[in-house]
């Protein structure tokens, strides 16, 4: 934006995008805004209307230029090409005027009672159906040249209409969010669809009642409806429920709905985005967001070309090779797109460098913010590339040396990658890791031969990472379980220990090439490792014999230690209230605790402290009598003696009272 015209022209010679730019049709634009765009049925003429001043322009695709331009008295709401070429055109203007143009120019002009918003042409009867700010649908017969009786609808206003090209069913979308279908032959309504209710789903958020803003038939049975809240509904005329509901998620009215038959796509557009999606699944195929707001979309028949009328002077043309071939008048586009795919080039800005605020602080140029040397753009600034190089050299004069050292390091790393790499083993369970690496190599060779997928390695699995890091998970090879369950581990571990020793020596010396460990050939090693069942049994017996000998030696060592130790007398303190009987009581208790529960219950039953009986339900009932300690027994005897003494005292006291009473009576 800040460049001069001369500088722009110089940049255009370098800019790859500008050099690739193709102007298909010369002056394909409007003075200010384009509102509608259509293609004639023969595909030769493209017609567009716009402002300002209100005008229509016709472009000839065979000449790739504009054929004619006609100015109009008022803005065009919509228009229709009635003939195969540009010879018969009807314009619906915003001042309630309907204007007819022939090949030479303006032909006739008439007026409808209310403001019109859309119209359709019924070919069998030569009738024009106008809908607008009225509950009536006005019919104008072009053969008789007069208005016919209007169709009276239930809607207060109508926005769009369309006629099915197969069976000529007339459909109109109302402001209440309904679609009314009429039969032109009987002039009766044959169907009513409530699209406003069907467009509201659990995921949609709408404000107000959705009205119909776009309508399009496809074949005899399919119909697409666009709402003012940004939903597109696909209907089968035999059902009142939509087959699929697609939301644009912008809340803007749908401006246009088109059908693309080669890939079964629906092209729907609002003022912000054009979406292409599959009409069976609703899956998005692609989407386009032009720079300016969209007013209308036109799909060139049987091709991959798309044209849009925008809120800008330039009308856009898009070519998508996946949708179809290029039109015959610009067939060279197919060759160009193939060349662009074969030779991709990246865009490079040679004269300016984009820097962020942090980059400016590192270069010491933060004080230039706000000056003409920096141009603010997005989250940073554009600055002249020469100034950037000078500042970088001053801020870091040794940058070239660092760059040179980095390049040398990269070259060395590349040569190192071609050498034999050392196997880096973990600190814990090195032998197990070496075993897993060897097994992984063998499995990879087998999978290459059988063309199978490689299984993931335990060393790279995060779930088993701790096993090679935590010393608590170190495998104890001297344990009895390890030696019995792995009888062949001694032979295999010897080979791995030899390899491990060689690897450790190489790591200690800092060598980068791994030498082949001396030893037997791989065939001999594989023959040694694959022992038969007899050898395995012998190895197990040998291990068990060694374990018994080791256990015997351990017992002998314990006996020697017991004999050498001197026994010293030990003193025990007896708790208060307990009597010392003998050491046999404790021995009896220990022997009793070693017995099973069944034996103890039988013994208790014999002593009378336990009573086991059957109940009426069929279960067992056990009654226990708890044993009392010596202290509790003495306490109970003392309490019993105390109660007896109190009884004797009460008796003697009662006896004395009786004697005194009798003495007074006799006295």
UniProtKB/TrEMBL annotation:
Main subcellular localisation: nucleus
Pfam families (alphabetical): Beta-prop_NOL10_N, NOL10_2nd, NUC153
Residue ranges, compositional bias (Basic and acidic residues): 627-642
Transmembrane stretches, start-end: none
Top-rank lineage group of the source organism: Eukaryota
Entry keywords, A to Z: Coiled coil, Nucleus, Repeat, WD repeat
Subcellular location: Nucleus, Nucleolus
Domain Nucleolar protein 10-like second, first and last residues per copy: 348-396
UniProt domain NUC153: residue ranges: 461-487
Residue ranges with Polar residues bias: 611-622
Keyword presence, Nucleus: yes
Region entry Disordered, spans: 507-536, 611-667
Composition bias type Basic residues, residue spans: 643-667
GO cellular component, one term: 90S preribosome
PANTHER family noted in UniProt: NUCLEOLAR PROTEIN 10 (PTHR14927)
Protein name, UniProt field: Nucleolar protein 10
Organism, as annotated: Callaeas wilsoni (North Island kokako)
Name of the gene this protein is made from: Nol10
């Amino acid at each position: 934006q800040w460049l001069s015209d001369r500088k722009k022209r110089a940049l255009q010679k370098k800019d790859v995008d500008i050099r690739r730019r193709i102007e298909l049709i010369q002056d394909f634009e409007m003075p200010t805004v384009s509102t509608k765009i259509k293609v004639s049925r023969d595909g030769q003429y493209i017609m567009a209307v716009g402002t300002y001043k209100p005008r229509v322009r016709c472009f000839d695709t065979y000449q790739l230029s504009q054929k004619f331009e006609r100015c109009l008295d008022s803005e065009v709401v919509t228009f229709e090409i009635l003939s195969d070429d540009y010879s018969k055109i009807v314009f619906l203007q915003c001042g309630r005027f309907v204007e007819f143009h022939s090949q030479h120019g303006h032909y006739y002009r008439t007026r409808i009672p209310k403001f019109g918003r859309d119209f359709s042409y019924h070919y069998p009867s030569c009738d024009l159906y106008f809908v607008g700010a009225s509950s009536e649908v006005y019919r104008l017969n072009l053969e008789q040249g007069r208005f016919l009786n209007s169709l009276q609808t239930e809607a207060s206003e109508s926005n769009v209409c369309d006629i099915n090209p197969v069976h000529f069913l007339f459909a109109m979308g109302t402001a209440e969010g309904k679609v009314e279908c009429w039969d032109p032959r009987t002039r009766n309504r044959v169907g009513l669809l409530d699209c406003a209710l069907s467009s509201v789903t659990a995921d949609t958020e709408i404000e107000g009642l959705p009205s119909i803003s776009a309508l399009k038939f496809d074949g005899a049975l399919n119909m697409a409806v666009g709402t003012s809240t940004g939903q597109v509904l696909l209907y089968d005329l035999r059902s009142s429920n939509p087959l699929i509901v697609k939301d644009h998620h912008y809340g803007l009215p749908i401006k246009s709905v088109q059908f693309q038959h080669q890939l079964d796509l629906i092209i729907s557009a609002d003022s912000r985005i054009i979406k292409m999606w599959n009409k069976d699944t609703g899956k998005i195929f692609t989407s386009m967001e032009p720079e300016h707001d969209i007013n209308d979309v036109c799909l060139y028949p049987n091709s991959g070309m798309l044209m849009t009328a925008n809120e800008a002077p330039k009308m856009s043309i898009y070519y998508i090779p996946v949708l179809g071939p290029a039109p015959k008048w610009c067939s060279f586009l197919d060759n160009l797109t193939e060349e662009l795919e074969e030779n991709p080039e990246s865009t490079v800005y040679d004269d300016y460098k984009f820097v962020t605020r942090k980059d400016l602080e590192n270069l010491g140029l933060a004080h230039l913010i706000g000056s003409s040397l920096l141009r603010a753009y997005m989250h940073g600034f554009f600055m002249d590339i020469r100034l950037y190089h000078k500042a970088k050299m001053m801020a870091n004069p040794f940058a070239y040396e660092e760059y040179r050292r980095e390049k040398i390091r990269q070259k060395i790393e590349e040569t190192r990658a071609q050498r034999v790499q050392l196997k880096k083993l973990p600190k814990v369970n090195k032998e197990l890791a070496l075993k897993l690496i060897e097994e992984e190599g063998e499995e990879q060779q087998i999978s290459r031969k059988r063309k199978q997928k490689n299984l993931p390695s335990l060393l790279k699995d995060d779930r088993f990472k701790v096993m090679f890091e935590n010393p608590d998970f170190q495998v104890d090879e001297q344990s009895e379980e390890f030696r019995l369950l792995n009888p062949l581990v001694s032979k295999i571990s010897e080979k791995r220990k030899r390899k491990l020793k060689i690897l450790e020596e190489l790591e200690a010396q800092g060598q980068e090439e791994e030498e082949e460990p001396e030893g037997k050939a791989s065939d001999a090693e594989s023959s040694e490792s694959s022992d038969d069942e007899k050898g395995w049994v012998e190895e197990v017996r040998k291990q068990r014999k060694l374990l018994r000998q080791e256990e015997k030696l351990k017992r002998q060592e314990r006996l020697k230690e017991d004999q050498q130790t001197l026994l010293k007398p030990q003193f025990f303190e007896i708790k208060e209230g307990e009597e010392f009987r003998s050491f046999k009581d404790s021995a009896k208790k220990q022997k009793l605790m070693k017995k099973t529960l069944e034996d103890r219950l039988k013994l208790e039953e014999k002593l009378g402290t336990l009573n086991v009986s059957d109940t009426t339900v069929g279960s067992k009932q056990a009654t226990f009598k708890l044993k009392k300690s010596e202290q509790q027994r003495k306490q109970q005897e003392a309490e019993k003696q105390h109660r007896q003494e109190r009884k004797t005292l009460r008796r003697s006291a009662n006896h004395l009272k009786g004697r005194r009473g009798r003495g007074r009576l006799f006295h």
